[in-house]
Amino acid sequence: MSDSIKRQVQQTFSKSKEAYVTSTTHNNPSDLEAITTWLNPQPSWTVLDIATGGGHVAKELCSKVNLVFATDLTKDMLVNTARHLKPFPNIHYVVADAEELPFIEESFDAVTCRIAPHHFPNPPQFIKEVARVLKKGGQFLMIDNIAAEDEELDHFYNTFEKMRDSSHHRALRISEWKEIIRANHLSLQKETTRKKTLPFSDWAHRTLEVDEVEKVEDYFLKSASKLQSYFNLVQQEKHIISFSIDEWMVLCQK
């Protein structure tokens, strides 16, 4: 099961590699600046960016630290990102599974992972690996889409994400993440939850064909008013303009 999920991730991101480099959602300047502010990176640091995707976090941090290792499960994605980030020589690219990192214990001063863990089939193993490769006192910063604690909202959110992207595994609830983090002896230093507004067309067409986009839109439009209200559905002439999802940003220390 886990292997098939990971193969699906590779297929999806190989196909969409350029879209993730140019995505306005992934290239949000305020989001990237917040990562720098929270981490306070030092010039001597070696940083690991897991599931780097379009390399936005690696690019943000590389001018402030000694070395950045940008890893991704999808080789095509990584090759494309390396081409875009050629002017930044202190980023090294490694094809790697987030749940089986090819690094020895206590290798990194900081580990980052942004808008990716909802693709991972085994989140506890991912966090175990993060804790293993972090130096004592090292910091882990994660940003990801999260599900609400409410069962109906959780189900609706994870359903439409899976419809839009078959490589989506599951967005966890914050309570689930905190349990995993505590179990791996990482101490939570800082957290914030926010609503992230997504332009529907950009979000849907990044991974879907036109007829598939219509199915996802229909699923939204036929949903209960409670769901449409929670996800801030904005419509115009029977089409969705935008909607909002929950995102969690957390800083932990080993």
Provide the fold topology:
Blueprint: H1 2-15, H2 17-22, H3 29-39, E1 46-50, H4 56-62, E2 67-72, H5 75-84, E3 91-95, E4 108-114, H6 123-133, E5 134-146, H7 151-164, H8 174-183, E6 187-199, H9 200-205, H10 210-221, H11 225-230, E7 234-236, E8 239-253
Parallel strand pairs: 1-2, 1-4, 2-3, 4-5
Antiparallel strand pairs: 5-8, 6-8, 7-8
Helix pairs in contact: 3-4
Summarize the structure.
The chain is built from 11 helices and 8 strands.
Tell me what you see in this structure.
The chain has one domain: Rossmann fold (3-Layer(aba) Sandwich), CATH 3.40.50.150. Helix content is 42%, strand content 26%. It has helices at 2-15, 17-22, 29-39, 56-62, 75-84, 123-133, 151-164, 174-183, 200-205, 210-221, 225-230, and strands spanning 46-50, 67-72, 91-95, 108-114, 134-146, 187-199, 234-236, 239-253. Strands 1, 2, 3, 4, 5, 6, 7 and 8 form an 8-stranded mixed β-sheet that branches. Residues 13-26 have low confidence and may be disordered.
The first-level CATH class is given as: Alpha Beta
Distance between the termini: 31 Å
Number-wise, the strands total 8
Give start-end ranges of low-pLDDT stretches: 13-26
Mean pLDDT: 91
User: Counting H and I runs of at least 4 residues, what is the number of helices?
Assistant: 11
**CATH architecture label:** 3-Layer(aba) Sandwich
Under CATH, the topology can be stated as Rossmann fold
| Gyration radius, in Å | 18 Å
Shape: globular
